[in-house]
Write a structure and sequence with these properties.
The chain is an all-alpha fold and 143 residues long. The protein contains nine helices and no strands.
């Protein structure tokens, strides 16, 4: 990717919630709402990453049938295997596919291209790598 993009503060927040820090739970939904709208993005890569973080966390909750990150973080390998069977897909593949499909279904590439004055191809070439990057970050928090 052409610009250094990182979301370590968000991943630290997820990790704190997963570890049981109740005081940080309240800010998660506000941040996710901001990310959904691409609020405060400095460029198209940051906006794409924020959209993917919103999708990734929402899909994690759906996939696991829980909105409790502490509980999700305590799931065993057997629990994850059962969920993979139930969802017909492992979590990382599920998350990345949901992110990429959301972009396609909602013409996000076109919207980001227009909003940020970038060519369609410039935005499009980051769709899959950013999905992999964000998915990896979410999985790292869970481990």
């Amino acid at each position: 990717m052409s610009t250094q993009i990182e979301f370590s503060k968000f991943y630290k927040l997820l990790h704190e919630i997963k570890e049981g820090n109740e005081t940080t739970k309240g800010s998660l939904q506000a941040i996710l709402n901001e990310f959904k709208d691409g609020g405060n993005s400095k460029d198209f890569l940051q906006e794409l990453g924020q959209n993917y973080l919103w999708i990734g966390v929402e899909e994690l909750f759906k996939y696991s049938n829980s909105i409790d990150l502490t509980l999700i973080g305590q799931m065993s390998k057997e629990d994850w295997d059962d969920l993979a069977n139930k969802n017909n897909c492992d979590l990382p593949v599920h998350l990345a596919n949901k992110m990429i499909n959301f972009v396609k279904e909602n013409q996000i590439t076109e919207k980001l291209s227009s909003k940020w004055g970038k060519s369609f191809r410039e935005v499009e070439k980051h769709i899959m790598p950013m999905a992999a990057y964000i998915t990896e970050g979410i999985i790292d928090v869970l481990e």
